[in-house]
Amino acid sequence: MNATLAACARGAVPHVALVLLNEASAASLSPDTVSYNATITAHGRALEWQRALEWHGKMRVRSVAYSTASFGAAIDACSKVGKWQMALVLWKCLSCELLDSNPIIVGAVIGALRRGNQWQRAIQVMHEAHSAGLADSVAHNVALAACTDATAWPMALAMLREPAMNENYKADNTSARIIAVACRAARVWHEGLTSLVKSMTSPQDVAATPLGSVGSGSVDLPTQSGASAHCATEAWARTRAEGHTPVLNNQIVDVLLAGEVRGAFADCTFGRGGHTRALLSRLPADATVFAFDVDPTAIEVARRLAELDGRLVPLHRPFGDLEAVLPTAVPLAGVLADLGVSSPQLDQRGRGFSVSEDGPLDLRMNPHMGISAAEWLQHVSAEELAWIIHEHGEDGDPLVAARIAEAVIVAVKRRPLLRTRQLSEVVQMVKAGHARNPFQQPARLTFQAIRTFLNREFEQLECLLQAALRRLEMHGRLVVICFKRTEVAAVRRFLRAHEEPRQPSEWWERRARGEVEKLFPLLVHGLEAVPWQFRELCAPLVPSAKELHANTRARSAQALVLEKLPRKIKF
Predict the structure, then answer these.
(1) In this structure, is residue 325 part of a structural domain?
(2) Domain check: are 327 and 466 in the same one?
């Protein structure tokens, strides 16, 4: 039972955990400390902090022994929703129960204080933990982030400079990003980098951080003096202020550059520039890479990178506009589109993309265009919403999609759903009894469906596929990274409509023209009208076990690789 409860905790599905506990009680089985800890964790990850504390309290009532993990799970539940007062109370109660704290719990307490905008208390807890030997790099970085959120950049820099802290603390990649964000907001680039470099223990540590490289080519610390040093340092720090792990990075760059075609490249979903940087690091000095993105934050990152590398051309446009935006004289050797939501978008609660984090119910890739999901839900009908949820999310069960739609509309009539948690709770109530995957966040597919519709993702994909086929040079390559079944299906449908038979000529010569054209619609058009075709170059690229271990968000990724070829069959 405990193994299943642990799975419920990882999947943030407390309703399944409660069913298991009730079944155990009915079978006269007594849940132990591990069982309760998993249940508390499940509620915490579902953002049900009050229920988590309720189960924590039941342990005392039912004479179940507390463990350090019991308090850690309850503190983490409070931390996720910024209930810093309760997190502090629980942390102080640890010693009353004769239990020892640990760096993970300290990090959760500081995280709660950060979410509650209590940066001064976060620093105080950090110092107390350090005195007790309980502070590690994670806790220190959370405290740094608390200062950054509150624009208290002098305190963040002071923490890096403080000798007592640095005895057991070494700045890392996360520290670099936090300090870069703090200093970017305050325009104090040189001070930030100086403090960061001093907190490293060796030059190798500097090289290992995001500030130690641009793309994959290493750069030295700026050594100029005066204004030129400030400008160089600022540009250097700016490009590394955001962090994101691109999926299939090396494999995709390898396949894009494996062809013999000369020309420009287009990264249609720049995000935080991981694929673009990898591509630029292996292209010649006269190359050009066009970077598309509708997210204002992403395109700002692209513009900062373009300040350092003139080969990059940022374009604040949807990738469906590729053909309209790029000059016809520009030959394209490769096109890349990553259809997933980037990690920074998922991690920013203000964007509303994450089901697990409470925030405004927005779901727009460009928050300055169109209307938010919260506003849209106030006008959509139950029938239209059911179709959208089924088409783009709950594609295997139209009845569940209809039930979710009805429940959402009823909830909206009572009061507008303005927060992600509000919508998530409505969907969870509907799906509690018949979720297909008990370890998956119940509202994930509904959020996915609404996001897909609001951003017209499949319309954009269709426009991109058409544009890539027309604009790529012969033997140019298109790589589409998909995360959903429907995305793979859309690319394959387009491929089937634009490929020639691979069978020998005697196969199609013996068949009636209408039969062959039905199987291969491209043959309806003559060679003069459409002289090119697409062909799938290889099996879909998938992440290695090593990549999955480092980046679990890559687990459903697969990259389809299409190559533009001249047509050969005159039918």
Answers:
(1) yes
(2) yes
